[in-house]
Design a protein that fits this description.
binds adenosine-5'-triphosphate; about 25% strand; elongated; 7-stranded mixed β-sheet; binds magnesium ion; about 575 residues; 29 strands; about 25% helix; alpha/beta; 15 helices
Length: about 575
Amino acid sequence: MSDKPTNFLRQIIERDIAEGVNDGRRFAGSPGDAAHHAAGPIDAAKIRTRFPPEPNGYLHIGHAKSICLNFGLAADYGGICHLRFDDTNPEKEEQEYVDAIIEAVRWLGFDWNVGGTDHLYYASSYFDFMARAAEALIDDGLAYVDEQSAEAMRAARGDFNSAGTDSPFRSRSVAENRARWAEMCSGRLPDGAAVLRARIDMASPNINLRDPAIYRIKHASHHATGDRWCVYPMYTYAHPIEDALERITHSICTLEFEDQRPFYDWLLGHLARLGLLATPLPRQYEFGRLNINGVMTSKRKLKALVDEGHVSGWDDPRMPTIFGLRRRGYTPASLRLMAERTGASKTNIWVDMSVLDGALREDLESQAARAMAVVDPLRLRLTNWADVFGSVEHREPCHAPAHPQRAELGMRSFTLGREVWIERDDFAEVPPKGFFRLFPGNRVRLKYGLVVECSGCQKDASGNVTAVLATVVPDTKSGTPGADAVKVKGTITWVAAHEAVAAEFRLFERLFTADQPDADGRDFRSVLNPSSRSIVSGFVDPNVASVGADTRLQLERLGYFVADRIDHRPGQPVFNRITGLKDGYK
Ligand code: ATP
Ligand code: MG
């Protein structure tokens, strides 16, 4: 089983396994109907789950949640998770999205190839079966062709307070329904001329059971099946069948499908009774969506952000897409940890990005090499350098562990010289209360280097500080005997001017100022954060400048950064700040 925190889905799966609900279930090695599976071996997978995206856009953080949940549960309980493209809608789907989804699921660390079998499926390859199932329903008196207008059908559906009324076409004979269905499929009828409906109950309190449409006419070319079909199944009809053909045991979806579950069970129950589908049938379970404060995930609105140039693309580091999160520097492990932490509950949940940031820090704390950099540089001149070291050119070697807890990662080496870059806000001409860093008369340690004492600053004509002046306190070199004899309250990070490499830093804040940018019909454009991205020029030490793209580092006191996967070049570094340090020491 598993030592992860339990949740209602885990409890259902554990109960089903304990009761042997799915024991003896056959799986023929590929999806198919009852006969196909009956000829196959007992399924070695204890459970089967699936992640079923529609290939009509890029995946986002909410999808990451669903991917981690479905693949994670399968992995934890000796099961298999299928990656299934729900490509039943001919118009909106594209190969570009299929490829991007495959890349994103892989990047998250999941695999659908088990024992040499690729469990990657396309709902469109089930179109033949879906049409056959529709005919079986017609033959059994459970489906009819309705030729009312869409408006008439809507009006006849009734509402929460009143029952629907029967369509004048509801009591057609099987033979007539077959003939009309054949005509629907023939291509002779225009879009909207007729639909195939399930015949269930026009008075059901669940409006989804008031004879839902299961097939519509659509003269559209499909990315996989071309012009073969002019009728396409409705999602609510297609999805349960896809699950059943693949022998999914636990079909996990979000809460908005709860009202569809009775139809899910109705449809599969009848198709199994008619001998078309293998049993036991899949069961649907609904969990609450993951929502993140300040994050908008609607595909249509994310597309607007890209198309209108509010962000640089689908992979802009501020985007909640998986590609945006990847470029920002979040790790697959941090997303998986976030998914685990947010669990699975029966209500929609809202969390802050801090859950992901916390997961990222946890992942990187033990892994990321440490380094020093300066993002808002101010020159510090050590005026007695030549007196102490004999020459203005003297370079004082300094050493620091690559990682404070992991000696095996070795040491990093750099040098200190007469001029160093420090953070502008580490100096104050007039120190505010409690300020322990550089101000005239105060001593601080240059981390891993020497103690210096501030003597003043230089300014330009308009009064801006252009350099800070200080003197070296002799015999205070970190790691030498007596270094600690001189006590200081502040330690600051720095990069020596003589070896600093200019670097671009991209610093991000939340994209929206409101927690629910598109709530209550608000135009999300009105709450775009104008300072969600700032690009600044700073310096890194040469060791940092030479790392490869995608390398993640902890820049001391500044946060976790990643070398941008697109724009970073060794020697011309570009770093994205992923997130700050939880308790930056200042
Ligand atoms: P969206 O409208 O947000 O783009 P969708 O549900 O239309 O998402 P699909 O491609 O149909 O996109 O989603 C694939 C799977 O991901 C579905 O099972 C869906 O329920 C799940 N999913 C999408 N968003 C979330 C979320 N915020 N939390 C959990 N699961 C989600
Ligand atoms: Mg959807």
